[in-house]
Amino acid sequence: MLLTDRDTERYILEHIDAEPAVLAELNRTTHVRCLYSNMCSGHLQGRILKMLVRMISPRRVLELGTFTGYSALCLAEGLENGGEVHTVEINDELTDMIEGYFEKAGYGDRIHLHVGDASEIVPLISGEPWDIVFIDANKRSYCEYYRMVLPLVRKGGFIIADNTLWYGKMTDGSAHDAQTLGIMEFNKMVGADASVEKVILPLRDGLTIIWKRD
User: Fold this and answer.
1) With left for phi above 0 and alpha for psi between -120 and 50, is residue 98 left, alpha or beta?
2) Domains within the chain, CATH numbers bracketed
């Protein structure tokens, strides 16, 4: 879902960096082969993720929810030499597609794919603190993910959470399903957390940027 109108969206896309050809191909393939293809980050959000990485200059990035790999590639694209992305995807049926596009884009050496439940995998790969964590997985579990990763993020590090306006349901009174309730509880939790600074951007389906104070 885009919270901007179509004309504004078109104008924005015409005046930002072009979508790399391999990402455009991945976007098309995702829409042809996958259910819930709207979960693919897409051109605008992808360029924003890359820009955020450029600005923060992280060494270690963690992503929860790879889907077909579009956002992981954008995160990796913004890294300086020596940086790495660890991305976790629970659906093992997507593994071949994900790894194929990582290699095709030329970022296979920067991205490490972990297949399984994030709650089990993250504790095993979290040696040094994370500089950025991008949360874009099961909306029901956003609070659980937040509690898990916050202690693992360095002081001054960032958590970025996708879909935090969730089809406009945060304000239209239709918060009844588990995913909507999960996002709503997450927003309340983050909003009340004095240990972080936070802002919600009305980009696509809502993007929350969280900065860890301590």
Assistant:
1) alpha
2) 6-212 (3.40.50.150)
Q: Which residue has the tokens 């015409």?
A: 14
Round to whole Å and give the CA distance between 165 and 208: 9
pTM: 0.94
Q: Are 170 and 183 in contact (CB under 8 A)?
A: yes
Which pLDDT tens digits describe the chain residue by residue (214 residues)? 445 678 888 999 999 999 999 999 999 999 999 988 888 999 999 999 999 999 999 999 999 999 999 999 999 999 999 999 999 999 999 999 999 999 999 999 999 999 999 999 999 998 899 999 999 999 999 999 999 999 999 999 999 999 999 988 888 877 788 999 999 999 999 999 999 999 999 888 899 999 999 8
**Neighbour count for residue 33 (Cβ, 10 Å):** 11
Sheet containing 60-64: order of strands: 111-115, 84-89, 60-64, 130-135, 153-162, 207-212, 196-201
